[in-house]
TrEMBL record:
UniProt protein name: NADP-dependent oxidoreductase domain-containing protein
CDD domains assigned to the protein according to its UniProt record, in alphabetical order: AKR_AKR11B1-like
One GO molecular-function entry: oxidoreductase activity
GO CC aspect terms: cytosol
Organism ancestry: Bacteria, Bacillati, Bacillota, Clostridia, Lachnospirales
Keyword annotations of the record: Oxidoreductase
Organism in which the protein naturally occurs: Enterocloster bolteae 90A9
Start and end residues of each NADP-dependent oxidoreductase domain: 15-313
A Pfam family that the UniProt record links to this protein: Aldo_ket_red
Amino acid sequence: MRYKEFGSTGLELSEISVGTWALGGKDMGPVDEKDAIEAIHTMIDCGVNFIDTAPTYGRGASETIVGKALASGKRSQVTLLTKCGIRWEEGPKNFKKGAIRDSSHDSIIKQIDESLMRLQTDYIDIYLIHWPDVNTPLEETADTLKELKKAGKIRFSGISNFEDNDLEKLYDLGVLDVIQFPYSMVNRSQEQLLKKYHEKGVATMGYGSLGAGILTGSIRELPHFEPGDARLGFYDFFVEPKFSRVMDLLEVLDDIALKRQVPVAQVTINWTVQHNFINTSLTGVRNAREAVENTAAMAWQLTADEIHKIDQAVAQLDSLS
């Protein structure tokens, strides 16, 4: 496993981390709980020391699985991240209908206690505001995060999916330890923000590194997801013409993977983490086999020539954006 300093936090974390959105089992297809727990254990046993989750992943299901996986004595082996800022209305258990962005003081206090219970722990290492809440002043949210730090419930704080103006304010308010944005060959939309705050000493995380599976090579035909599948609304490459351009990119990845005798996913993972402005990249896993495959990517690195070839293909994809 390879490790990097995590911004200015003093932590040294694995270059890849466990992404658990899919483990919620409601947004991205079904998942077996036993397989999910084995996947987390395998990632840890292979040297990964960072797990990312959120209450919104399966409406608490992902946090519950992570809590069960860590209850066997592995909590001390990992840095644990979860998120806040979204609650649900009473009624239908449907994220898209019932989710409300709420980063107010009282809401976050309730949210963290619920997360701590599901995760079976008494503190969170890193606590991120998942999405902006335009109805709550940033100062109120920042004061709440500071209150949680003082109480020992969280160690570090930050955001996921914010605009730069809000990032500047939160940085000045002293609560921007970590930022998390999508970053992959198929989504470089926030690259400049990642670079900017990396230079300021803020820890950076990229999510969606495998493009919801499309950059593993496992999807070669335009998929037809079930209604409500989050991949349809969250990603723009499961429709034409971008899907065909991604298939062209995969041909380049296929060639490198064949010459190196490694799975395509390992090529993808290395391309992401070899950017110095990415401290860690989230990799989703559903079972132990995927965990072994992903962590094996850390045993080697792409050459400058290989990165150049990939970058040329990525540039063709970017021309559609």
